[in-house]
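Observation: inputs received (chain + 5-O-phosphono-beta-D-ribofuranosylamine).
Thought: call the complex predictor directly.
Action: predict_structure
Action Input:
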Amino acid sequence: MLNIIVLASGRGSNLAAIQEAIEKGELPGQIRAVISNKKEAVALAFAAAKGIPALWVNPKEADGRLGYERRLLKAVEEIGSDCLVLAGYMLMLGSEFIQGYGKPILNIHPALLPAFPGGAAQKDALAYGVKYSGCTVHFVDEGMDTGPIIAQTPVPVLDDDDEEALTARILAEEHKLYAKVLSWLAQGKISRQGRKVTVSGGGSSL
Ligand code: GRF
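Observation:
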């Protein structure tokens, strides 16, 4: 049983997909809490409606980024978890937090990393003219979308795509991929040596 804490800043559709996979019995785990840096995050309202503890940690009340991350780490440690799942969490995590937590931290990104890191991945992919983009689940390190890659799903870019259409096509794959990767994690199938991540019994894409 994987104890998950989700960090989210916004709409929370990946959070909802993970919770749905748990409810369907596809992911042997539970979401212990959802934490956000944004009071108005839809993700917090979703959690509250599901009876999952929903916590707002206000960055403005903390003493800078380090102070904020110390408060975040304290909250995470008090709740208890096996992993942290970033699902549309819009702040970077520093090394004190990552080292201090000491357990897997995962993120999902709407592009095939290392292509198009950052906050405008779908727009950047369209502007570049790639024929395939997709989504990536990776371990979090100190960089921006630079951590070891666990799994990716390619998604075609169609000639008449705009940002909205491509974003929606990728998002549908994100929802499947994140739940799948977490089920691998729950089953102890993921191992990591440096940047190289392997999934026993196959995997790495859907
Ligand atoms: C997703 O596209 C995810 O890849 C990116 O932020 C977005 C979050 O969407 N990191 P949601 O809040 O899960 O709906």
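Thought: report the result.
Final Answer: The helical segments are 13-23, 42-50, 64-79, 95-101, 121-128, 163-186. The chain has six helices and nine strands.
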